[in-house]
Amino acid sequence: MTIGGRIKQARKAGNFSLRKLADEIGVSAMAISKYERDQDVPSSGVLLRLSQALQVKVDFFFRPSTVSVQLQAYRKHAVLGIKEQEAIQMRIQDWVERYLEVESLFPEEQHAANLPLRKVTSLDEIETAALELRDHWSLGYDAIENLVQLLEDRGIKVGIISGFEHFDACTFNADGDPVIVTKGELSGDRQRFNLGHELGHLILDIQGDLKPEQAANRFVGAFLVPAATARYELGANRTDLNINELHMLKHKYGLSMQAWIYRAKDLSIISENTAARLFQQFRVNDWHRQEPGKPYPSETPMRMERLIYRALAEDLISRSRAQELLGKPLQLGWEMEALQQNDLAIRSGN
After folding, report:
1. DSSP string, 52-111
2. What pLDDT score does 329 carry?
3. Residue 139: phi, psi to the nearest 5?
4. CB-based contacts of 7: which residues, under 8 Å, 6+ apart?
5. Are the beta carbons of 219 and 130 closer than 8 angstroms?
């Protein structure tokens, strides 16, 4: 990718218009346009101001292109604008390029996801596909403690981006590797639903009259809570579900209370009328937006960061390069706390 292409990528990732960026760095919008079309080359001073305005290192503009990101399955709200979609894609592209760069330092760490693609023509076949994946990954029927780490351990790259209210999640392939990206400002149960939904898009080859989004939603419940597990927890036939019961199950399996209601309805544990009444109770109490009780904790991808600190420890990259690849300061929270405690002890001693 040329310097102009990198400038355009960073501008779109930062959701800057040509005029806004031009005003930020003190040049004309025409000058920015010429840079992006490779009709002119910015001076070192302009590059420095661009890096400050766009919050990227100067080295970013000279980074070779390693992958082209084309988003496939894409969960978003209808009001998500074209510019926001471009910003999301450019941020994801930058993250994937950094991920692949650090991963290339450890060829032995690169392993294929080996996801079984399953043709499905009915909801029952989706249930079977979910069980087959659990069997393929030797998961049994127990609760999945950390879905993000499970996906990373199975060769799926997981990313989180923040700052886009109307974006939910997307999935695509990068150099043949499956990638799932989800929104950062989510509770853990909603985050896990997004991840499971996108996982469904990766392994389900949907045939016939099945709708892709409906199929992926059914897959989430079947994968996180297999039918036998749901019946073990709820019983085979119920006339009602208790809110406290749903809250406890949410924290055991990482599946939202409302998703549990859907799961019980889909498996005919409760009737359509019972499910409708429970959903109405959630709407009346505004629980459909924020469920009652303690929220389920969100999960954090760790593989990329772990590889960066490994590369730093083995002197494969400098500290400044590690920080650039990580996209944030290197110092860990517990390190900062220890330094503050030491400083306090020194001051108290004086």
Report:
1. HHHT--GGGGGPPP-------SEEE-TT--HHHHHHHHHHHHHHHHHHHHHHTT-GGG--
2. 80
3. -95, -20
4. 32, 35, 36, 42, 50, 54, 61
5. yes
Structure tokens at 250: 């949410």
pLDDT (0 to 100) of residue 337 = 58
Q: Which residue has the tokens 């079977």?
A: 128
CA-wise closest residue to 140 among 228, 56, 212, 77: 228
Distance (Å, whole) CA 202 – CA 116: 9
| Exposed e or buried b per residue across 269-281, where buried means at least 16 C-beta atoms within 10 angstroms of its C-beta | bbeeebbeebbee
Residue with tokens 């924290």: 251
Among 11-15, 73-77, 108-112, 269-273, the range of highest mean pLDDT: 269-273
Per-residue pLDDT, averaged over 146-157, amounts to 96
How many CA atoms, within 13 angstroms, populate the side-chain half-sphere of residue 265?
16
CA terminus-to-terminus distance, the chain: 56
- Rounded to 5°, the CA angle 164-167-168 comes to 130
The helices-and-strands tally (H runs, E runs) of the chain is: 16, 6
Please check the confidence at residue 332 and state whether its pLDDT lies above 80: no
* pLDDT at res. 335: 58
140 CB neighbour count, 10 Å cutoff: 10
Which H helix or E strand runs over 160? Answer: strand 157-161
Tokens coding 224: 């996180």
